[in-house]
From TrEMBL:
Named cofactor requirement(s): Mn(2+)
Listed transmembrane segments: none
Binding site for Mn(2+) 2: 42, 80, 115, 196
Subcellular location as annotated: Cell inner membrane
Name this polypeptide is given: UDP-2,3-diacylglucosamine hydrolase
Enzyme class: hydrolase
Gene: lpxH
Domain of life according to the entry: Bacteria
MF terms in GO: manganese ion binding; UDP-2,3-diacylglucosamine hydrolase activity
Family per record: Belongs to the LpxH family.
An example Gene Ontology biological process: lipid A biosynthetic process
Annotated residues for binding of substrate: 80-81, 123, 161, 165, 168, 196
Length: 243
């Protein structure tokens, strides 16, 4: 059956070997059977620049290269952990970079896809950082710094994020429903697919009097979250990382 795959929030890194193994199996066994693969951000736990050629990164690049060379297109939307991933990575792997929000035609339906962090407007502290990090000057400044320093900055940023988020109420870090409705209305769609919140679910609701749905991909910390879309419908799946 013709189908398209969506993944997000894998947070790949050398500290998570089980996730890496599950990802490599997925890329070798499941992804080649799809018509296309969409990666909706936070592929890496932290991406500090396309010039970081450590062996781990080369392994991940090769998995994407093998897939695209087999004829399966790969589309990527930046997340809040990998917004420094750039054109060099895309050219080396055959991946296609998409804007923060993209409307696609999937088996006859217009669907809006995105990472999802921009929908969490109640988290004012994060939104302030996001405006800086996605601006024109901050990424350029970071990429101009030595790799060793970027690694230090990324490590401190992860530690700070974990500390801050422990003290935030859950609703603050979740999607603001009104913002999701706004972007869907603006895009003219009734289906939105995103990640970021690590809360896999299919939310059914009404948008301007018509049925609508918001599909949230889960992360890969403890299980493999995967959305399979075909002409017959959508299935949000999860599976064990091992086996």
């Amino acid at each position: 059956m013709r189908h398209t795959l969506f993944i997000a929030d894998l947070h790949l890194g050398e500290d998570w070997p089980e996730i890496t193994s599950a990802f490599l199996r997925f890329m070798a066994e499941e992804a080649p059977l799809a018509e296309a693969l969409y990666v909706l951000g936070d592929l890496f736990e932290a991406w500090i620049g396309d010039d970081d050629n450590q062996p781990f990164n080369q392994t991940i690049k090769q998995a994407f290269t093998n897939l695209t060379r087999s004829g399966v297109p790969v589309y990527f939307i930046h997340g809040n952990r990998d917004f420094l991933l750039g054109e060099r990575f895309a050219q080396q792997t055959g991946m296609q970079l998409l804007p923060e929000q993209q409307v696609i035609d999937l088996y006859g339906e217009k669907i809006l896809i995105m990472h999802g962090d921009s929908l969490c407007t109640r988290d004012e502290q994060y939104m302030a950082f996001r405006r800086k990090a996605r601006g024109w000057w901050w990424p350029r400044l970071m990429l101009a710094l030595p790799l060793w320093y970027r690694r230090r900055v990324a490590k401190k940023a992860r530690q700070r994020s974990l500390h801050i988020n422990r003290n935030k109420p859950d609703y603050i870090m979740d999607v603001t429903p009104a913002e999701a409705e706004r972007v869907m209305r603006e895009a003219g769609v009734s289906t939105l697919i995103h990640g970021h919140t690590h809360r896999p679910a299919v939310h059914q609701f009404e948008l301007d009097g018509h049925p609508a749905r918001r599909i949230v991909l889960g992360d890969w910390y403890s299980q493999k979250s995967l959305l399979v879309v075909s002409e017959g419908g959508m299935a949000l799946k999860s599976g064990a990382l091992t086996g």
